[in-house]
Specification:
This protein is mainly alpha-helical. 59% of the residues lie in helices and 2% in strands. It has a two-stranded antiparallel ribbon with strand order 1-2. It is elongated and about 65 Å long.
Length: 219
């Protein structure tokens, strides 16, 4: 298949996939289409399924390309494919939670908590608002986690330093990927997105490691 044929096969599940995205994945060694004598790429059905696996892991599990590449290598060596990653369940035809416009009332209703708790998280700076006054896309997930924490006496005001630390991590990632985002040609946007995902995952894992070490101790 030509690259245009591959895009037609994939866009039903991945509407934003592009020529540059496929070329970027090729540059990263995740896919290796054959080349005609004239230099045109040609993809097999197996190549298309490999691309489908990569795109699904990025979309559903937010995995960095390095991890996806390791999974592909394991599958190439004969190991069974990993189980599909769970996705957030939403009604058919409805947008994902991250794309929904959240308000204090809708977050409270969705999470089964009080609007007072949600407002306290906004006041404490744990939840951020968009310029039009709506809550950010992660609001429902944050509130669900906070609900568990409040059961153990951890109040919203205690979480402000944690949010501030996360914001600093985001700024650090933005600084690292800025050179890629400034590229006007080629695969700069795709490279920036994948690098940001990988750095975010590494910072999250590092933070988790330190917290776990401090709370559980070491042998």
């Amino acid at each position: 298949m030509r690259i245009s044929d591959v895009l037609n096969h994939l866009r039903g599940d991945f509407p934003h996939v592009s020529h540059s995205k496929l070329r970027f994945l090729e540059d990263q060694g995740l896919i290796t289409p054959v080349r005609t004598p004239a230099g045109y790429r040609q993809y097999s059905p197996a190549d298309v399924e490999r691309l489908r696996f990569v795109l699904a892991e990025q979309r559903d599990s937010y995995l960095p390309l390095k991890v996806i590449k390791e999974r592909l290598a394991a599958m190439d060596a004969g190991e069974p494919a990993p189980a599909p990653s769970p996705r957030l369940a939403v009604p058919a035809g409805a947008p994902g939670e991250s794309r929904r416009r959240w308000t204090v009332e809708s977050v409270a209703e969705t999470t089964g908590t009080s609007a007072e708790l949600v407002r306290s998280l906004v006041t404490a700076g744990v939840l951020h608002t968009t310029p039009d006054g709506a809550l950010d896309g992660s609001a429902a997930e944050v509130v669900r986690i906070v609900q568990r924490l409040t059961e153990h006496g951890i109040e919203p005001r205690h979480l402000r330093p944690l949010r501030s630390s996360a914001d600093r991590h985001v700024a650090l990632v933005d600084q690292a990927v800025a050179p890629y985002r400034s590229q006007q040609r080629g695969n700069g946007a795709e490279a920036a997105a994948d690098l940001a995902a990988e750095l975010g995952e590494l910072l999250a894992r590092l933070h988790t490691t330190w917290v776990r070490q401090g709370t559980q101790g070491t042998d």
